[in-house]
Each structure stands twice: as structure tokens, then as C-alpha cells.
Amino acid sequence: MRLEFVWNIEFQKMEMLSSSTSHTPELILYEFKQQNLPACKPVLKPSYVVEIVDRYDSECVPGAFRGNKVSFIKDSSLPKNCSRILKVRKHMKAPIYIYYHLDNYYQNHRRYVKSRSDQQLLHGLKSSNTGSCEPEESNNGLPVVPCGLIAWSLFNDTYTLIRGIKKMSINRKNIAWKSDRDSKFGKQVYPHNFQNGTLIGGGKLDPNIPLSDQEDLIVWMRTAAFPSFRKLYGRIEEDLEADDVIVVHLMNNYNTYSFGGKKKLVLSTSSWLGGRNDFLGVAYISVGGSSIILSIVFLLFHIKIPR
Amino acid sequence: MTRGRIRARLRRSHLHPFSCLRPNANNEEPHPLSGPGFSRIVHCNRPDRHLKKPLKYCSNYISTTKYNIATFLPKALYEQFYRVANFYFLVAAGLSLTAVAPFSPLSMIAPLAFVVGISMLKEALEDWRRFAQDMKVNSRKASVHKGDGVFGYKPWQKIQVGDVVKVEKDQFFPADLLLLSASYDDGVSYVETMNLDGETNLKVKRSLEVTLPLEDDEAFKNFTGTIKCEDPNPSLYTFIGNFEYEQQVYPLDPSQILLRDSKLRNTAYVYGVVIFTGFDSKVMQNSTKSPSKRSKIEKKMDKIIYILLSLLLLISSISSIGFAVKIKLQMPDWWYMQPLNPDSLYDPDQPSKSGLAHLVTALILYGYLIPISLYVSIEIVKVFQARFINQDIQMYDEESGNTAQARTSNLNEELGQVDTILSDKTGTLTCNQMDFLKCSIAGTAYGIRSSEVEVAAEKQMAMDLEEQDTQITNGSRCRKSAHNSWEDSRGGPEIELESVITSKCENDQKPAIKGFSFEDNKLMDGNWLKEPNTEVILLFFRILAICQTAVPELNEETGMFTYEAESPDEAAFLVAAREFGFEFCKRTQSSVFIREKYTHPGQLIEREFKILNLLEFTSKRKRMSVIVQDEDGQILLLCKGADSIIFDRLSKNGRVYETTTAKHLNDYGEVGLRTLALAYKKLDESEYSAWNDEFVKAKTSISADREAMLELVADMMEKDLILIGATAVEDKLQKGVPQCIDKLAQAGLKIWVLTGDKMETAINIGFSCSLLRQGMKQICITVMNSDAVAQESKQAVKENISMQITNASQMVKLEKDPHAAFALIIDGKTLSYALEDDMKHQFLALAVVCASVICCRVSPKQKALVTRLVKEGTGKTTLAIGDGANDVGMIQEADIGVGISGVEGMQAVMASDFSISQFRFLERLLVVHGHWCYKRIAQMICYFFYKNIAFGLTLFYFEAFTAFSGQSVYNDWYMLLFNVILTSLPVISLGVFEQDVSSEVCLQFPALYQQGPKNLFFDWYRILGWMGNGLYTSLVIFILNIMIFYNQAFRAEGQTADMAAMGATMFSCIITAVNCQIALTMSHFTWIQHLFVWGSVTTWYLFLLLFGMLPPYYSEDAHKILVEALGPAPIYWCTILLVTVACNLPYLAHISFQRCFNPMDHHIIQEIKYYKKDVEDQHMWRRERSKARQETKIGFTARVDAKIRQLKGKLQRRSSTLILPNCMPSPCQ
């Protein structure tokens, strides 16, 4: 668990004394005279990002299969459930974001990136423009919805978090971009013929839920820029106190063993700058610092050797 | 017409005993014409016979265009794709249609089509302009025989071989003609060939005797004849042919041929038969295809593109090897890519094949390293620059109404790198008009007006004096003493400065009479009668009036006579004589009539002088004499000629005025005047008749050496002369020429004069435009007495010249005085040897160490050869400037050709890259526009490479993170817009509007110009620096971005950045960084630059916003990216700020460092200007200005410096040894 401090600006709104329904000029003038105008009062205080990272890919393989993890993960008859214990070191303020972190996974590979059909995602079977989905365009002569390698390799590990004895609710709504839900994934498009082939890739989709509501898919289909990436899994909407112990029941379904990729579960709060980001601060300080040093050097030169 | 008839009674041939020798009828054998090369047959007056083959010759239509409608497309396309970068993009666009392409085909083809389309449009426009010029020439009208003795006008292009053409005075010949008859009875006509060979004196042409009766329109009714002659060839001075007329065959020689583009002068009209038309004519045969020139910068740019191409190849190979390795070793493990279902491009079993296919992909992907829009941007910029040159009001000539014209815009930046200027003389430096300015009669100098050189030098000296005055106040003792002595010396009688200092001449007081600027009351208005030596003065004026070959013409309006003379000097003499009261009013076959005004006060007396003999002027004799008998029966020989010749021929008692006259001649020469000495002698009747008998004998002799005999006889007569004085004529320089040359010299340019004129004239002009000055060591390289040498073996001559060159080089090498200047003067004949392969480098080595070089009597071909020698020998940029067709060769050969427009004849302008109407505009063209354009283009190209490297390499780095798969992090549309829209306008505004210093400052600090020839802004150091900057920028952008966006949520809502967000952020960083970079590079901001630079940044966000609004079908992954994802994320904006600062910090530090510790000239000037130092501290400003002069040895500034040095030296020596120094002897004559 790591912490990060970011100066946060919080706005406290003054409550308005008078009824806020009427905004007549007289009233504004009155408020002005009485120095009672609504205002925001910025309070600068340090905010920090608390992050819990737990790598589970090798731990969740039973001891017998440690030597050959790939065969374990490929064997669908074996139980894949696994429990992890996380300790909260510091108070974590809601919302707490849950990410899965994959490593050595080339989601940005050209073959992979191209293998999708935006047309089909929006219009479903009505669209025949699925040439780019090769080699996951159709199965048994029937088109696949959603087609393409990206959808086919959907991440399918699942997490259940338990604090004490109580199962924590994970909000898995609104984790994708609104614009994706609204205009890129069709509301009337249902998965069809998905993961029915001989080769099963990743997760399956509920054929009764339209694509626009399959937010895991939507998140997954925003391909990551780098081979090591995090994707949002869900949100916990309650605070975690320091020294809380959280038990994670997870289904270790996804195969990262064949290419040696790590899998991590990440719990993190966020600040206005997003997640934990030491680098930005360091970079700002060093660039600013070198600017100051340069200016001092030039100043000294200027004093020493006037022109 | 009537006027012509009256004059036609004159037979002009007796005025030309030497050049008009009519070959004796006895040896008029027709040329034996046979064999190849002599196949042309012309049926005179029967153009209908030339309508079909084999007698159908090419039409008189000329075309200088590069393309026609049919050839435009293939030719222009070829030209476009001949460029490496364009060809690369063509191939890339072709491949973009296949599966290997990482981009959509549209994003490859659209920019290419745009770029090539604009370039071709420009080509088409330029060619259209050439076509319009041609049409103007082709549609000129000429009077052509239409049958039955009727002449009518026809456009030139319709003229056919065999047509009989009538050309009137001052018209150009429409084709090469055979002269049939002229308005003068003996078929003599005068032709000005300035457009062909640059010679200004008129050439005499005469027709065959047999065709003389064809003297009016009617006579051509039944005229027929046949000409058999040589095939078209470029030799201007030879012609071999036979004319069959009335069953007789007559030989033809060059003196019957009137060449196209030469002009009829002093002759009312001529008739001629067209022999060669259009491209067959000699002048067209001489013209070479105008070569397409490319500037040095552009050539270097090609090298850079090759470097980038190799870089591209390198990173593509790295990428494809990486790809192949990854695909072989790792892809089988990537189950999510279904490696068992591969397509051909990603086949783990065939990594080499996939790798090769990937190489193609990579070559296209990283193509952004090579700026596709570079060429088109440069072309757009150059078109604008050219327009600015065209519209520069400071280069507008009010007299002709012409502005400067950049006829090709390819060479703008080359103007800023010129090292050597090769200039024609006549029409370029001078306006070919002579003004009688001073004279020396009986040892007294007359004429108080100063020549232009004096005026210019005087101004400079006054300025320098003032400067010295101010320096004295600084308390420098040594300077003070120098100044005091300077004060003393001004009064010193042995120093001839008072004329320079005291004669305040009002420049604006223009001479009222053309050809006469003389001003001295002692001689004007008959006051000469009060002078001593009245007799001598009278004789002087009479020589001016009588010793000539001109024809007077009464101007009906003014009642004054104007004179049609063979040379402008002669016209100036006659005008002078007229003004002095000796008006030459009539010439008959044997007499000259002079109206004398003052000899008998109050009366106008017309005196007749019988011309007994006339010994005309030739360049070999360098003198002219007439033998006249006045009304009293006294026979006189009147002679004028070059001073050296005359001085050799004086009698013992004729040398009374020799020393003073010689001194005056020397002074006149120094201030750039053309001088002639006048002398006479009295002859007894018997003495004369004895000589005349011999003369007649010589004249009528048939033998081959008749010419030599004539010369010998003339020589006998022209001796024992009595010197009476000398004349000084100013070969009117064009306005502002000395000042311009001075400024150009200060700018560090070398100026060579190449002229077809005589050596004396050339040297005079050298003096008058300060290329030469007294005290400069003149190195004359000539072949001794030309005729004798002609017999000698060629080897001996060459050895002789080689010796001369070696000696001169030695002399230069041994010279200790740092201020010593050398001038090299060489004539055409010698040059023909010196330009041979084995000697030319020796010659060039000598020439480059000389401060000025003058080549005289050079042919057009030699001009081109000299130009090529300088261009190739020194490797520096040459500029040739000229106005006539004889300069075309050199204009085309030089790196930049400049034509002087305004004077008749457009050949030079047509062949040129730039045309200006006055020589003086060259200063502004080079020092202002050249300087600007050079810096603009240089900076622009550097920046172009910078921005494309900065952008292109980020693609490569990203590849490494995608297993080299060829995926780009940016949306296709961003990349398409990058070069075409988002970064092109600022760089174009840099190229069009950037000014390091204002034009006035450029002119005040000519030494700034040296930044161009030294190539300070486009050397490898700078280019690589910019490339390094690009590399650094790309690294900063990429590394900072991946570190910041690595795997964390980038906003408060917890989403992590995907590839689209990442790409958009990186691209935003690039756009901001490169646009801030260009803002740092610029030093001149108008609202246009602000608009373009900041507008480009804004455009990017606007684009992102609007593009995101489009339905996802069009916008793909950029859908609502700014509104929803990036815009509300503070980290996005923080990153842009950070990256932009980090990218530009090193450059900012670099330029600050440069400015502080290693400032260049323009930095200092910019600061002085910025702090308004020029207003507050005049002294400092002037000091900086004088420092900014390039060390030079020519120009009047150098002359003034030399004079001051000389005076100082004199004073020092006088105080120590009391020995007066001798004047530097000039080894030239």
C-alpha cells in the first residue's frame, strides 16, 4: 500500500441565507450590500491517494500446478476460485476504484487493435462491415457479435470483496465512458454466437443484455496504449478504515500464464489529478528547478560579464 | 520618307575607307558550295515555294515555353516525382492501397495530391507567363512584300523564308535577312548589334552592287533570285552563301546579312530577303535551353532528405527485425491474437516474410520523418517572396514604370548567398550615353562640374571626416595629430583634393542638353575669346566639329541640329561643338559646313570645310583624322585619338602642352572619364598632293595587303602633330551605380566586369565606378601585338600568357602592404587561351586574389565560360547581370541571372531569373531581399526537419511498445493534418514574413549580408543542431507522456488512459511544443504571425472538439475525446504545459547563451534598435555602422580610405625624410 499526497482544493459552499428561489436584481443587490453573496471558499489541504496493489497470478495457482500454470488455467474442470487478504493501512475515502492490472499484454498490437468492427458494435447484425474482425469474424458460418479479437479475449476474472463478515457492494456501472455507452455500443445490439467456437478466448457475455450495458466489454475494448495496463473493474462506494482487513474472493479465469504476464488487483482512491502519480510532481519540480538554475546562471553571468 | 530620300543621295562608303572595302570585282568568285552543311535554298520573293518539304523551313514563330498543352502533364509530373521525397511519397501512396499500409489510403494520397497539385499549378502559371512573352514578340508587325510591289504588315510569326521585308529605322529585324538595298544609294546601312554581342558602335552592312536598283516597293514586283547557303548555325560572324540573280552567281559574306534581334540605325529603311526564320536564325541558334536552376540550399536540402531517408530505412529495419523476432519468439504465446489463425502479415512460422512485409509498413509509417509538405511549403513561400520582390516600391523605376520581377521564384534564397557578381558594362553599369564634361585646351583645364565618381567620393569623405572629428573629441592623441596633418594637407598645393572637397555640385541640376554637361563660364557664350590662346581654342572647337563621320539632322521643332553618329562619344563632341558655337549643320559628299557663332561677333557665319580625306577610327588605329581644306585654301590635318597614340606622334614643337595635358588626362582618367587627345598639323599643298597620290594608289590596289598598305600610308600622314588639348567625356553611369557598387563591395561581394567593349573604355568605366583607382596595381594580361602573334605558334602564345599570369601571381604574393589592391585586366583574345583547361585554374587563382577583374572584348560565349569558371572553380555562388542578348549565355550559366529591363531587347530579361530596371536596385535585391530570403528559407527548412523529426520519432518509440507491430498511437486524421494544416501555416509565415532586421538596417549594415555567403544559417552544425533538437523534443514528449499516463487513472473518475487518450495527449503536446518553438525562432511578429502560430494551436483544439462531435462512424476513437475525456482532466493540461516547457527549455537556453556570449551581428543590431540607441546615441550608431563595412578594396569608400592613407603616409615621410613620394606607376600602358 502506498500513499500519495496531492494538494487538494475543496470548495465549501456558503449556504444562502435567503431563499434561493428568487434571483431578482434587488435581492442580489441586497445580498451584495449585506456582504452575503454566495461564495466559494477554497481551502488548500493536502489530499493523498491510497493504493493497494496485490499480485495474485502465481499465488492463485494451486501448488500442484505451480510447474505448469498454463495447463491449470486451460483446464476448465479445475476450480479457479482463490482468496486473498488485503490490509488497509490508511483510511481510504470513497469512492475507491478497483482495477485489474495486466502485464506483458499487447493490447496495442496492430493485429489486435484492428480486429474489431465499430459498425457492428453499434448496429449489430445489421452491419456486415466486419471484414476487419478476422480471424474472429464468424463462427460455424454465423457472424459473431461482438466480433474481433478484442471482444473475444475479454477479461473474465471476477472479484468479490468482503470486509469482516459483510460483502461489500461493488458498483460496476458507469465505469466506461458515457459517450461509448451512448453512441458506440448499440442499445439494441445483443451478443450473438459469442464464444461458441472451438477456441474459447476470454469471458462470455450475457446474450440478454445489450452491448451498451456490458460495461466490462466497453472498458476492455478501449485498448490500452502500453503492454502493461490497468483497467477499471468497479467502484466501492464506502470508506475503508485503516487496519481494515478485506478478503477478496476471486475467480482466476483469465490466462496470462502462457505469455508470462502478471495479474494484479488494485484498490485505489483518486484525487483531482487522477491516480497516484509521483512522476508528474517530480517532473514539474525538475523542469521548474532547471529553469530557476538556468535563470540564476544567466543572471550571474550578466553581473559578472556585463555586455 | 522624304527625309530618307534626301539623305540617300549621300554615299556613305567614302566615310569608311577601311571597313567598307568592297572586294574587287575580279576576285568575286562564287563560293564553291557543296557537301553537307550547305543545303539551304531560298527562293527570294517566292515564299509560296517554301510551303512544302523539302524547302519548308521552320516558321518564324518562337517559343521559349517549357511545356505545351500535350506535354504539360507528363513532363510536369515527371519533374515533380523526380524529387526524391515526392517519389517516396508516390510509392508510399501506392502501397497504402495494400494491406501492409498502417494508414488509410486517403491519408496518404490526399496530401500528396495537394502538394503535387499546387506545385504543378505554379509551373503552369510560370509557363503561361513565358508564353505570353513569346506571343508579344511573335505578334510584332513587320512590313512584308505581298506581291505586285505592295507591302503590308504581317505579324512576325507569319514571316516565311523567301519573303521580302522592309525594315525601317530603329526597328528590329524579324529574321535573318539578306540585305538587298538601303535608303542610301550605295546600299550601306547601319546596324546596332547590342542585343547580339553587346557592342554599342554601329556596324556597317552593305548590299551587293547588283541589288542596288531594288530601291523602292515597286521594284520588287518581279524580283526573283535564289540563295544557296549554309545550314542554320550559331556562328554570328560567319556566313557563306551564293546569290543567283539574273543568271549570275554572286558570293555572299556576313556583311550582307542582317541578323534577327539587331536593329537598324541611322538608315531610313532597308529591304531584305528572309533567309533564316525562327529557330533557324543565328540568334536563336545561339540561345540555349534555359537550364533549370536550383539553389544551393535546395541542393543541400536534398542531402538532408537523403540522410533522413537513411534514418528512415534504419529505424524501419530495426522495427522490422524487432517485429520478426517478436513474432517468431513471442507471438505463439499470445493466445489472444490467435497465433494459430495467422494472416500472412503476422505469421509466426514465416517471420522473415512477415518481417519484409512489415518493412514496407514501417517505411510508410515513419514517413513522417520526411516532410511531405516541405517542397510545397517552400514553393508557396517562394511565390510570396517573389511577389514581395515584385511589389517592392523601392525597386520601382519611375522612368520605365517597371518594377523588379522575380521571374523564377526558385532562387530567392540564392540571392542572399552571392559571392561574385559578373556584370556586363553597356546598358548595365552605363546607360550608353556620353556627356561632354571637361576639356583641357592649351594646357588649361576647363569644366568645373564633377563627375559622378567625384561626387560620390566627396560625400563619403565628408562623412569620414566628420567621423574623425568626433573621434578626436574622444581624446585620442594619435588621431588628433593625424587629423591636424590632414587639415594641413588640405591646403597643401601638391595634393589635388581641393577640387574634390570644394566643388559643391548640385546633383539635382541635370544637364539640360543631352550629351553635354560641361559647365565653365570661361568657355561658354563666347567667353573663350577672352581667354589666352584664343587661336588654339578655336582650333580645338573646329576639330570637335569637323573631325567626325556623323550626319546632322534638323529638328523641326527646336531648330536645333541633332546628330546621328556612329558612336555616342562623337555625338557628344558634336553637341559640345554646337554649344560652344560651332554648329555642324550640313554634310555633302565632299564638304562639311560649320555655323560659327562667335568668331565674328554678332554674326552667324557658315563656313565650308572641304574634306579631302578621311582616315576613320578603328580599334586598332585608335585614332581618326580628317584632312580638310578651309575657305582660305589652308590644308589641315585634324586628328583625335587615344592619348598614348597621339603623344607618340607629336612633333618636336608640338609638345608645348604635353606635360600639363598629360597631367589633366591623368586626372580625368582617375575620376572615370573617357579621354581623347586632339592634335593637328598644317600641310603644304605639295606635301599633301604627294601623300594623296600614294593614298589613292594604296586604295585602288588589288593586292591582298591593301589594308596594310592603307594603314601604312595613313601612318605616314599622321605624324609630327601639334597637341592642342584633350577632351573628357563621361560615359554616363546609370543612376546610383557607384553608390551601389560601393555598398555591394562593403557587403563583401566581388565584382567582375565582363564587357565586349575596348580595353580603354572598360578601364575608364572601371575608374568611374570605383572598381579601379589610382594606386591600385593593374595587372594587364594581353597578347602582344595581335597580328604578329597570330603567326606564332599557339604554344608560344600560351606560354607567354602563362608567364604573365605566373609573374602577376608572384607579384601579388610578394606584396607586403595589406592595403595594396590589384586589378586584373584581360582581353578576350587572351582570355580564349586563359580559359583553356590547362591554364584556367592558374588564371582563376590570380583572379580571385585581385580586388577587381575586368575582362574586355569578350564574346558572349566567353562571358558564359568565365562565369562557369568562377562558378565551378570557386564553388561559390555567382550572379550575372546584363541587359543584352550577348549576356544571355552568362545569365543562364550563372547561379543567378539578373536581366536589366527597360532598355529595348528582352532576351536578357527572358533568360534571367530576376529582372530589375536599374543596376542600383541590385543592392536592395541582394542586401535586403537576398538576405531576408536566405535566412527565411534556411530557418524554415531547419524548422521543418525539426518538427518532422520530433513528430516522426514518437511514432517509432511507440512502436517499441507495441511489439513493433506498426500500430500508430495517433488517429490517421491527426497525422494527416499535422503537416498540411496544423504546423504548416506558422512555418509559412516564418518563411514569408520573417525579418531579422528591417530593410533600412540591412542597407545601413551591408556586412550583415555576409551571413549568407558564409552560410551561417544553413551549415551542417546548425542543421544537425536542429535535428538534435527534434530528437530531444521527441524523446521528451514521449517519455514524459508515458511516465505520466503509464497505468494510472488520469482523472478523478478513475478511468485509465487508453490509446486514444494517450495519442491525443501526445499529439497536443507536439502541436503546442513545435508551435512554441517556432514562436521562439521568430524575431518578427506581426499580427499574421500571431494569428498563424497561436491560431494553429487553437485550430488543433478546435479540430479535436469538432471532430469529436462527429458520429463515431467518422471520428472513431476520437469521438468526444476532448469534451468527455481529456478536457475535464487537469492532468491533460498539466502535461501539455510541462512538456512544452521542457521541450523548449534547452533551445531557449541556447539562444540566450548565444545572444549573451556569442552574439551575431544581427543580434547586436536588433538590440541597438530595440533600445533606440540609434536615436539616442548617434555616435555609437555611426561607429557600429562603419564597423559593419566589409573590408574591401573597391568602391569609392575604399578609394577614400586609400587617399587618406596616402596623405598620412606622405606627411609622415615628408616630416622624416623630406622626400616626396612618387605616384604609383601603373604598368598598364
Automatic annotation (TrEMBL), chain A:
InterPro entries with a match to the protein in the record: CDC50/LEM3_fam
Keyword Repeat: no
Pfam families: CDC50
Keywords from the UniProt entry: Membrane, Transmembrane, Transmembrane helix
Major subcellular location class: membrane
Domain of life: Eukaryota
Keyword Nucleotide-binding attached: no
TM spans (from-to): 279-301
Recorded family membership: Belongs to the CDC50/LEM3 family.
Protein name: ALA-interacting subunit
Organism this protein belongs to: Salix brachista
Automatic annotation (TrEMBL), chain B:
InterPro entries: ATPase_P-typ_cyto_dom_N (IPR023299), ATPase_P-typ_P_site (IPR018303), ATPase_P-typ_TM_dom_sf (IPR023298), ATPase_P-typ_transduc_dom_A_sf (IPR008250), HAD-like_sf (IPR036412), HAD_sf (IPR023214), P-type_ATPase_IV (IPR006539), P-type_ATPase_N (IPR032631)
Organism per entry: Salix brachista
Every P-type ATPase C-terminal domain range: 909-1159
Name the record gives this protein: Phospholipid-transporting ATPase
Cofactor: Mg(2+)
Annotated positions binding Mg(2+): 424, 426, 883, 887
Transmembrane feature ranges: 81-100, 106-125, 304-325, 356-378, 944-961, 973-993, 1023-1047, 1059-1080, 1092-1110, 1130-1149
Topological relation to the membrane, as annotated: Multi-pass membrane protein
